[in-house]
């Protein structure tokens, strides 16, 4: 959350959910991440996994954040399996700004039949608006290499 958001009293809904100050039921929580069902599910199972500490989006991340991303991804796989879904046939990914609706990093964990063709497209890996963990790691690594090259 930015200083301007705090000054203008624009609270982050995902921060409130993660810290338990809303009536949202968490399906998982530890010191680093929290998971809850999407309010407008795109499929049979649609869970959001967020960092407990506010991270704005995939655009603000660095390679230092890869362990957090991997933890979020692994928890998504675990939650899919618990619900009887094959992770290989499911979708785990992040919307890329400006195509995200909440400015708090969140991993979409989507399993089962999609509710519409539009939703299927909205959560399709490889589109400019949606990336999976592998794509995000490659983007972060490229960003790191560019930063290192600029220092030389």
From TrEMBL:
Pfam families the UniProt entry points to: DcpS_C (PF11969)
Species of provenance: Linnemannia gamsii
Domain HIT: from-to ranges: 13-120
InterPro entries documented for this protein: Histidine_triad_HIT (IPR001310), HIT-like (IPR011146), HIT-like_sf (IPR036265)
Organism superkingdom: Eukaryota
Motif placement: Histidine triad motif: 104-108
Coiled-coil intervals: none
The protein, known as: Histidine triad nucleotide-binding protein 3
Entry keywords, A to Z: Hydrolase, Nucleotide-binding
């Amino acid at each position: 959350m930015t200083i301007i958001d705090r000054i203008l009293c624009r609270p982050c809904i995902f921060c409130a959910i993660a810290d338990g100050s809303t009536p949202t039921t968490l399906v998982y929580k530890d010191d680093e991440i929290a998971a809850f069902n999407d309010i407008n599910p795109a499929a049979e199972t649609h869970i959001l996994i967020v960092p407990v500490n506010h991270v704005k989006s995939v655009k603000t991340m660095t390679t230092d954040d890869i362990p957090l991303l991997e933890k979020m991804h692994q928890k998504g796989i675990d939650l899919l399996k618990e619900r009887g879904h094959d992770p290989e046939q499911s979708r785990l990914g992040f919307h890329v700004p400006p195509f995200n609706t909440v400015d708090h990093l969140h991993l979409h964990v989507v399993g089962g039949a999609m509710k519409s063709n539009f939703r299927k497209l909205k959560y399709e890996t490889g589109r400019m608006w949606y990336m999976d963990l592998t794509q995000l790691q490659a983007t972060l690594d490229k960003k790191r290499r560019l930063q290192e090259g600029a220092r030389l």
